[in-house]
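Usage

Read records sequentially. Each one opens with the input sequence:
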Amino acid sequence: MAAPVLHARQLCFGYPQRKLFTDWDCALPAGVTLLQGGEGTGKTTLLRLLAGDLAAQSGTLQCAGVTLNLSTHKAYQEQVFCTDPRSGAFESITPKQFFAQMADRYPRLDSALVLELADDLALTPHLEKTFFMLSTGTKRKVWLAAAFASGAAVTLLDEPFAALDKTSIGLVVELLQEAARHPTRAWVLADYAPPQGVPLALTIDLGG
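and closes with the structure output:
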């Protein structure tokens, strides 16, 4: 059996009003994993924990041989692509500048593939506009182009179909179908239901 791409051991995390995860373990395989659960079950929080953007209260994370700690934080985050599509952090920059920032953060990002995906997602006319000028769907397409070109060992996708047009949804499904066959990289898709036609390596159900 192949070694997991990402291994979470005994993760604990909660907010003052609610405990979300207690001694949570997961061995994330290559391919596509569905992270499902009802509203408020912690899907986005778990993605942020796995990305190292949110610190667990206890437990360990290891991705592609890098164990997350204070001294390895940057090296760990290079292995895990995660960008919140709802964030307002990029409102003053253009998609082209966003792609450049992602290339700095993820050394294996394929810049040629980013532009190819941007063209496939009909983003080319918007590359010089600032994010605040873009629709919600267009912003998500910028994020998706970077995600699928990142080259990261683990790519975390939070509701990737939200606000997309039918053509873009079809392209994302095709990309996930390719991802499902990858022997060494993992994609985690947080959503309420599995994408049709995409084979799943694992389903994580948070209930609710």
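Summary fields computed downstream for this record:
- DSSP finds six helices and nine strands in the chain.
- The first strand starts at residue 6 and ends at 15.
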